[in-house]
Specification:
The structure is a single chain. The chain is of the alpha/beta class. The chain has a single domain, classed as Rossmann fold, CATH 3.40.50. It has eight helices and five strands. The protein has a five-stranded mixed β-sheet with strand order 3-2-4-1-5, with helices on both faces. Helix 3 links the parallel strand 2 and strand 3. The radius of gyration is 16 Å and the shape is globular.
């Protein structure tokens, strides 16, 4: 079973280095072109459908891809971005200055972090993992695309591909390309 994790296309906040959180933002023209380029590269992956978070940005990203790949899309509430509370809109420098100890924890043990006024990253990882595993079971051996925002992208990749949890923060900061993950039957359990 193949899962293609796809980050949302770029926005003005991406360009400014700001954390998106759940703030509603549209794709920029460059973001639309980025999605078109991804679709051209993903044409050979055999995607049967594209699942996405229900927000405007994930929906726009999924629709650009789906039109070019001629596949259906479906919004799933459980793919919603991690609620990062008071961090939404901050740059990394601002986050580090205002929340120094938490910034350090994000780099070392991100699953222990709960953003102020937001959702714990460990709870978000469980939610995202459960949602994607359910879709893997439903789709059998068919390849699916999953469009999510940066925190959800990083956590979903960690859940599906494993590795060190300490890499989640770097993934949040640098999630800019689709990632193909081959999942075995155990990933669906």
């Amino acid at each position: 079973m193949k899962v293609v994790l796809i980050p949302c296309g770029s926005t003005e906040w991406h360009d400014d280095g700001r954390l998106l959180g759940r703030v509603e933002l549209p794709l920029t023209p460059a973001g639309e072109q980025q999605c078109a380029d991804w679709a051209a590269r993903l044409g050979g992956e055999g995607l049967e459908r594209i699942l996405h978070a229900p927000d405007e940005l994930a929906t726009q990203t999924a629709e650009v891809l789906a039109r070019r790949l001629a596949v259906p899309t479906k919004a799933l509430d459980d793919l919603v971005e991690v609620d990062i509370g008071l961090w939404a809109g901050l740059t990394e420098a601002q986050l580090k200055k205002r929340f120094a100890s938490v910034h350090r924890e994000l780099r070392e043990s991100p699953l222990n972090v709960s953003p102020p006024g937001g959702e714990s990253l460990s709870a978000a990882a469980e939610r995202l993992g459960a949602c994607i595993r359910k879709q893997i079971r439903r789709n059998g051996k068919k390849a699916i695309g999953v469009v999510v925002r940066p925190f959800s992208f990083a956590l979903a990749r960690w859940v599906l591909a494993g590795g060190e949890a300490s890499g989640v923060w770097e993934e949040v900061r640098h999630a800019s390309e689709p990632v193909v993950i081959e999942c075995d039957e155990q990933a669906a359990e």
